[in-house]
Design goal:
mainly alpha
């Protein structure tokens, strides 16, 4: 089985950030505007994610469309997990942020104990891929909780949130280029792109009275989905292949 994840390039990060935005705006649109509610939306998206994961795991190589479809669905489900804890069970964002960080750390610890590596360049067994997707799910859940904690509970707002999280990612990128551990900087950036994408989605979709640009969730979701589809189609036609590189924030 060939490596099941893409090469980490600028396109990778662009699609990742847009996927997180779609996760934020898409979940809000289905739950609020369509009227499904968080419970039904969560169940439907979890079912779609299970189906996408089954297809992804059945592949013996990296296939762009199914990989990124799975990422988008993980983004929605990760958002729904945090929203359900916050809105339905009234779990404090401080508590959920810490809890998700502990769970993610535990996943990484078990992953490393079994495989002796956390590198995404070696996802060529089913067990490693299972660890990988488990980690991805909780990076989205953690990113959602941490992002909501910063922008809502701590009062940063959408505008400041975008710049704050972009600044943190820039700091991680600088650390990577200065020789910091590549695996650590990759996963830190992966976590931070979630609140960045969510803040960007809220900034674009929320009404002007709440500090947004008023584009609405459906227009924002469709615009970003269109870009994602275009980039994934380009990767597919260009024959994108996962390979080891020293690319920016690659590990």
């Amino acid at each position: 089985m060939l490596n099941k994840v893409p090469e980490v390039t600028l396109v990778f990060w662009v699609i990742k950030i847009m996927s997180t935005t779609v996760g934020e705006t898409g979940a809000d649109y289905l739950a609020v505007h369509v009227g499904l509610g968080t419970t039904v939306t969560g169940l439907v998206m979890a079912g779609l994610l299970a189906a996408a994961l089954a297809v992804q795991l059945s592949m013996n190589r990296y296939v762009p469309w199914i990989y990124w479809l799975t990422v988008v669905l993980v983004s929605v489900v990760g958002t729904q997990i945090t929203d359900a804890l916050t809105d339905k069970l009234e779990v404090s964002l401080y508590v959920s942020t810490v809890a998700f960080a502990i769970v993610l750390a535990a996943i990484f610890a078990v992953w490393y104990a079994f495989e002796r590596t956390l590198s995404i360049h070696t996802i060529f067994t089913t067990r490693r891929e299972a660890f990988y997707w488990s980690a991805i799910l909780f990076t989205f859940a953690l990113g959602t909780a941490a992002g909501d904690l910063a922008t809502e509970a701590l009062g940063l707002g959408f505008n400041v949130g975008v710049f704050a999280f972009a600044g943190l990612i820039a700091a991680v990128a600088a650390a990577s280029m200065l020789g910091a551990n590549a695996v650590l900087t990759f996963w830190l950036a992966y976590i931070l792109t979630r609140p960045l994408g969510a803040s960007l989605g809220d900034l674009l979709s929320q009404s002007r009275e709440y500090g947004g640009l008023g584009l609405g969730t459906i227009h924002t979701s469709l615009a970003f989905l269109t870009v994602i589809i275009g980039l994934v189609a380009w990767l597919s036609f260009e024959g994108d292949r996962p390979r080891k590189t020293e690319a920016f924030l690659s590990e």
